[in-house]
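Ligand: zinc ion. Inputs:
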Amino acid sequence: MSRSRRTRLLCSWFDMLTTSVSAMTPDPNTLRRTDPCSECGEMMLWTQNAWVRGDNRAAAYRCLNGHVTDPADTRECPACGLHDTRVVSPGGAGPSAHMCNQCGAPFSVPN
Ligand SMILES: [Zn+2]
Ligand SMILES: [Zn+2]
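Predicted complex:
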């Protein structure tokens, strides 16, 4: 194998490695909730399969002590796609009002 071919291979291998690493490690800021845990005050991180109800598992915010927030209270912001949102007013019969902690966008979720 000639020297130039080996260099090219190394480069493409390095490209592959760096792109997969950046895809595998999302920015921790996008996973961290602005509001602390309502039970113990620790910071909360968006965690896959944290919310368990029967056979259903869903991603939810979980604190360092294992408290999990109902994902219904942290709906995905339609503007920025994050779940760092809060309920402004529970809807009751009508749609509930939510607000994004990251971008400040208000949005509503029909019941
Ligand atoms: Zn907690
Ligand atoms: Zn947002």
